[in-house]
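ligand=S-adenosylmethionine
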Amino acid sequence: MPKWTLTLPPGLEPVALRELEGLGVRAKSTPGALLFEAELAAGALLARSLRTANRLSCEVLSGRARSLEELAAVVREADWRPFLRLRDEVELSTHTARSRLSRKDMVEKKVLNAIHDQLRGGGVRALPASRPHRQQRLQIHLEDDQLRISIDAGGERLGVRGWRQAQGKAPLRENLAASLLLLAGWDGDEALLDPFCGSGTIPIEAALLAAGRPPGTGRPYAYEAWPVLQGGAAPRPIPARRSVPAAPIVGSDRHGPALADAHQNAERAGVSIQLVQADVSEPPVPASAGLVLTNPPYGMRLGNQVAGVYRALGRALQGPLSGWRAMFICPDAELARLVSPRVFPITSFSNGGTRVTAWALDD
Ligand SMILES: C[S@@+](CC[C@H](N)C(=O)[O-])C[C@H]1O[C@@H](n2cnc3c(N)ncnc32)[C@H](O)[C@@H]1O
């Protein structure tokens, strides 16, 4: 059975594990990665459904490679025809550690030549010139002279959904927004407000989740070009569960241009959410209770005048939004406690290179 690896920011493994379990897959958790086995078509289809993952890849081979000759033999022995055609473009991402073969450039050249030999030896026909090439991405991992090569089912990161073409200075990665929604236990039946919505990432991910729609829209996935999945073997997308959200999903921001981005992104994603221009001190209140889930500005990337914003969020949660529970991300415990001394940490992870904590506050 093929072996698969799902990667994600360390700290979010439990939420991705639950997501995979919900899709009927049992996985083993390691820091920053979940490992599982699945048939090729079923595994590849997960690239379309997973909301929390950065990347999903399928192992093509593993073996000992103490010399370039040994490496070439291992690569030639593997069957590449299910994944690649002779003329496919291949992008490589290579990691080597504690191995006799330490020069990445030499390893990569040998791997590419050996794949080429194998595909030619197998008599694979070149694609007609009129057919556009799809780029494939291989991960070469060489540690303690043990070689492992995997092929990325997404090509582009799975966090890139396709709909977010407009974004401000500090956008939240889409898969992190989805992870936070799942971490908060939000399932679409509860009202949702993001009072610092920027380009709309959290409310748009929420609307897609509530509708049971796949997170990526109009983007290609590398597995769609794998020869083994052509014709009847191609996995079918999952049908949507429901189209009208059961509860209001609202984004607000004080910055007009950010809201214009959010409008464009929501339209591209094909979701209907409410977007309101408002300062956090006077937030929209779409229901008497719900979840405030948000990514406030936190200084490192947006300037240092942010303490007042956290105090204002705290006052809103005590005033117009009392009765709402809250979760927000912030790298600094002192800033987070300006919202309320009752906030408690849920987990920490990396957001664009900054270590942040997800803080929660019960209603
Ligand atoms: C870190 S960004 C949010 C990014 C958003 N999650 C995304 O993915 O695009 C913080 C946002 O807070 C907004 N903001 C800053 N101060 C605010 C305030 N007092 N009231 C409402 N919004 C504010 C900024 O305009 C910015 O869009």
